Every structure is written in C-alpha cells, then in structure tokens.
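Tokens help. Consider this.
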Amino acid sequence: MPKVSEEYKERKRVTILESALKCFGEKGYHLTTMDDIVAYSKMSKGLLYNYFKSKEELYISLMDERSNNTLAYLRNQFKQIPTAKGKVIEFFRIYREGLINRRVAEFYSCSFGVLDLFFSARAFAGDHEYPI
C-alpha cells in the first residue's frame, strides 16, 4: 500500500475546506450538502468523510481555522500599539481599508452592516473625535 505524505493530506484538507467555504458562501450552511462539497472539490465522498465526519465538523473546522487566521493577523497588527484606544482606532482603520471585510466577510458572508451603521451614525452626529 503506497504511503501518503502529510503534505499531501494537508493539501487535500485545505482543498476540502476551500470547497466548503465556497459552497457555504453560495448556499448557506443549511442548504449546503456534503454532496455539494464533494462535487465542488471533485473528490470522492469517501475521501471527504476520511477528513470530516459530518458537515457540522467540517464547518466548525473551517470556522476555527478562518477565525484563528484573522485573529493572528489582528494580533500582529496590534503588537506595536500600546493602548486599547489605539487598537480600536487601528481596527477601524483596517476595516475601512477593507482588509477585515475581505478576510472575514468572505467566511461569514456578511458586509459588517453593524459597523457600517456605526460609521453612519457617527457621521450623522458629527462625531469626528477620532480620525478613522
């Protein structure tokens, strides 16, 4: 029996997660089936189930990985900022530039409507205390 390298296994796992992300983004969690992910990934159903026992496990793994990557990115950005106020300002700066929007909204399939509402309310109130 041929041995499969860890690198090969990791590439397959990443392909499955990327396929699941695409399917969840297009159809949502509840309407996406494992068959959809199999079809998009062009892998067999057996291979998919070797990596993830269920759609829920796959989704949680995807959520964990994407969240951890985003948090690592933010931690790296915040390393040199000593105050909480500075970190909040930097967070909103990053958001405004679209970095958070591209990295997180892709996974959560949302547009950060709450933050958009926050900025609209501040602009309406004429609150320009913090340059964002």
About this structure: Residues 55-78 form the longest helix (24 residues). The domain at 1-62 is CATH 1.10.10.60 (Arc Repressor Mutant, subunit A). The CA atoms of residues 20 and 59 lie 8 Å apart. The chain has two domains: 1-62, 80-132.
